[in-house]
Amino acid sequence: MTKKTIYLDNGATTMLDPVVVKAMSPYFSNKYGNASSTHHLGQQARMAIDNARHIIAKSIKAKDQEITFTSGGTESNNFAIKGIAFANKNKGNHIITTKIEHDCVLNSCKWLEKQGFKVTYLDVDKEGFVNPKDLKKAITKNTILVSIIHGNNEIGTIQDLATLGKICKKHNVYFHTDACQSYTKTELNAKHADLITLNAHKIHGPKGVGALYIKKGTKITPLAHGGGHEFKQRSGTENVPGIVGFAKAVQLAMNSKHINHVKKLRDKLIKEILKIPDVKLNGPTNNKRLCNNANFSFKYIEGESIGAYLDAQGICSSTGSACSSHTLEPSHVLLAIGLKPEEAHGSLRLTLSRFTTQQEIDKTIEELSKTIKKLRKISPFTKILKRL
Ligand SMILES: Cc1ncc(COP(=O)(O)O)c(C=O)c1O
pLDDT tens for residues 95-148? Predict the structure, then answer.
């Protein structure tokens, strides 16, 4: 008999909400117009995009024209960072980011370094927070952009955008934040940043669609040149079903009371798992943590093995961000918060969603506890390290 899947990898992606599927469906079939066409089918698509843009703009208290649709978080982050760098290089060549960004931010910055830009990678404290004083100190007269992730995808740390944004504003430096993980899970207000990255597939929407909030008046160079779609910011025929699904997912998330439900289950999971000896929670212990995120380090064993054992029981988990968990490198985020490589290797991320149930969490607690015991029994490190 196949086991029922318990999906606790919502930080990687989420299940499409059936209501979202239903909303998208006509745009895959009879409502197939190109939004640039002037006939009625085209105008139907245009209206659907305009309506979606309005919903997303309203959700972060932005203006409709400040939302540019993209193919997702990776493109939005590339666009924000490279677009600001190219458009403002006459003003300076210095960018500030952190050591705990998503790979698409870090690799965009590394690529810009090869083009002659200078990048400062800020340290974070042991819970993953950026110290505003460090940001202030790092800004120079050549700084053109600061990019700091809002809710961290691995350890759930939520940065104080209001404080960080104020510092950037005072120094006349653009402030970008990657909010892929925090969007609809905690307050997000466009007044705190000049550019905000959003995507749909972390909130029960479709993959391959996202947006970049670009504050009116921001000087940014487009990456994709073509027919001038999306206010000339991002050319390419719009992904109408994706955009419609994105907006529906936002509406559902904003209207649901999921935050408390998810947080309650997550807190129970943390409380019970911390009863296992030699376990620690990575990331913040307070409310400045994404409501759906738990990340543990288990001594003497490897996260990869824990994940494989859990998978055999039908439980989906992760050892890091989805994009890097196929490598055996320790997570750069866990190293940045001060974990030793062996502690980082023994980590496991469990991320919940509004569809997660109490029974699923109870089953996970039971199976994870059994797995840890089993793996420690056969781990050579248990004996060696305990003897030291
Ligand atoms: C924080 C963060 N930023 C960016 C991305 C990339 O988004 P996408 O998968 O839509 O390209 C992800 C997804 O893994 C993420 O978690």
Answer: 999 999 999 999 999 999 999 999 999 999 999 999 999 999 999 999 999 999
**Mutate which of 79, 153, 158, 185 to test ligand 1's pocket (most atoms within 8 Å of Cβ)?**
153
Instruction: Give which of 115, 107, 101 is closest to 78, Cα–Cα.
Output: 107
CATH classification of 18-253 is 3.40.630.30, yes or no? no
pLDDT digits (tens, 9 = 90+) for 232-256: 999 999 999 999 999 999 999 998 7
Q: Indicate which residue's Cα is closest to atom 8 of ligand 1.
A: 73
- 291 as an active site residue: the answer is no
Give the residue extent of every domain in the chain: 18-253, 256-387
Query: Residue type for 152, please?
Result: N
Ligand 1 atom nearest the C-alpha of 75 is 11
328: left (phi over 0), alpha (psi -120 to 50) or beta: alpha
Read off the pTM. 0.96
Could you say which of 168, 180, 316, 323 is catalytic? 323
Q: How would CATH label the architecture of 256-387?
A: Alpha-Beta Complex (3.90)
